[in-house]
Amino acid sequence: MRKADDGPWLVVNYGNLALLHHHLGDQAESEAYLSKVEALMKKYPSPSQDELHAEIYAEKAWTLMKFSTDRELVADYFQKAIRMQPDMVEWNTSHVIGLASAFKHCDTGLEADILEKMRVAKEQDPENLYLAAYYLEQRAKNGEEVKDEARELAEKVLRNPVSSYSGMKAILRVYRNYVSVDEAIDLAEEALEQHPDERYLKRCAALTLRWKIIFFSDNRPKQSTVERAISLHAEVISCYPHSSFVKKIDLANIYAKSNHGQAKAEQMYQELLKIDLEPSEKQVLYNHYAKYLNFDRQDQNKSIKYHMKAAAIPQQSFYRGNSIKVLEKIKNKRRNRMWREIEEFLENLQEP
Asked: What is the pTM for the complete model shown?
C-alpha cells in the first residue's frame, strides 16, 4: 500500500512478530524481531517525547481492531494518526469501520452520527468495496430497499482482487438478509468458480451453505446441500488448521441436520469438549452445544446446563450474553422444572 519496504510502521509489525514467536516458545526468533524494532526506532525516532509516528498509531489501531475488544483505544489511535496526517484516506476508512463494528450484533442499525461518518468515508474512499458493502448493510438495517444496489455492488466485488477486505463477506451478509440466501450461495459459488484455489472464497461459500442449512431450512434441508456444505467445511478446516475451532463447531451443526449425521455431530462435539480451551472459546463451545442439545437432540435440561456453563464464565461476550438471555426466557416462562434452579443461578451470577 505504501509502495515502500521500510518505515516506522514496521515497528508494530515486528513487535507483533516478536510477541508471536515468544508465545510460540521460539525465543531466538523473538529476540531477532526485537532487535529489528530497536534498529527502526533509532532510524525513525519519535517526533516528540509524548507522541509516536502517525504510522505507528495507525498500525497499533489496525492490530487492536483484529485482536482486541478495546474499541475506545482503537478510536483513540486512529484519531491521533488522522490528526497528524489527515490526507491518509484509508486511516479514516478504518476508523469508521472500527466505530461501526461495535454494533456488529445490533439489528437496528448504526447511530445516525456513525452512519453519516460512513457516508462521508465512502465518498472519500470510493474504491473501497468492503466499506461500500458495509455501508449498504447499515442502510438496509435502517429500512432502505437495497436489492438492486446489492446486485450491482456484487458484480464489482466479483472483479475485485480476492482478500478478506474485498467486500465479499460483507456483500454476502447483505444478500442473506435483504436479497435471498439462495442468491448469496450462487454469488459465493461463482466467486469460487473464478478462483477455485482461494481458501478465503471456500470459507465464504461454506458460510452461505451453513446459513441455508441452519437458519433458512424449515424442515430437513436437501441432502445434496448438506453434502456440499460438509465437503466445503472439511476443506476450510484443512486450509485453516490453526484457526479451525469454530469451523469444527459449524461442521458438527451441519452433520446434525444431515439424514444420518447425528452420531457424527455428537462425536465431534465430544471431541471438542475434551480440548483444553481458553475461557472465551469455552463460552463459544458451550453456547453452541447447548443450542444443538435443545434443537437437534430435544434435550432441554442438558441444554440448560451448558447455557449455565457458558454464562458462568465471567468474561463478557456475545455468547455469554446470549446464554443468559436464553436462561432468563426459560425462567420467566416457568414451564421447565429447572426454572427455580435457573433463577438461583442467575441471582448468584458473577459479573465480568
From this structure: 0.86
Taking alpha carbons only, the member of 102, 106, 171, 55 closest to residue 117 is 102
Amino acid at the residue 46:
S
Residues contacting 326, CB < 8 A, separation 6+: 290, 307
CA dist., res. 239 & res. 242, Å (int): 9
205-245 pLDDT per residue, tens:
999 999 999 998 777 789 999 999 999 999 999 999 988 99
What are residue 48's phi and psi, to 5 degrees?
Answer: -155, 170
The answer to whether the CB of 146 falls within 8 A of the CB of 140 is: yes
Angle, alpha carbons 21-70-102 (nearest 5°): 125
> Which residues have CB under 8 Å from 291's CB, separation 6+?
303
DSSP per-residue string spanning 2-71 = -S-S--TTHHHHHHHHHHHHHHTT-HHHHHHHHHHHHHHHHHS--SBTTB--HHHHHHHHHHHHHH---H
